[in-house]
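S.,

Sequence below, as promised.
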Amino acid sequence: MTREKYLELVNGILVEVFNDILKIEQRVIVSASGAALTINEIHILEAVGPDKPLSMGTVAHRLGISLPALTISVNRLVGKGYVERERLESDRRKVMVQLTRKGRKAYEHHMAFHRKMVDAIVDDLDLGNLPVLVDALKRLRAFFKTRYKRILED
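The prediction came back faster than expected:
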């Protein structure tokens, strides 16, 4: 196979995998947990995480989105029963969020999906091939972070 054919093949695979991951991830979470969540809401649950409460500012920073955009989504998640929000008594300007039991359940389904996805990629690879895969993925990440830095910072 020529280099051009490999490049065409890699491009096709990347586009298809990206689109499939987003579509499948949302449907798997919904069917496994009964969660009526969008993919963006699922990623907010992931950013909040199952542990201690986090400030809205911390979550917005993790996601690379504005505080007002996060507030809109968190309001929906509170209404759906996946997130709890509380103002700090010591500083009423600071709002903390954490997952509810329902939110932790959806989070666990999401993380299980990711574990299965990663396992499917690495299970049959020899240990010697993993650095090549990791290097290729790091270069892809660096491409986006360098080439589209301004978009990612918005």
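The first strand starts at residue 54 and ends at 55.

Coffee later?
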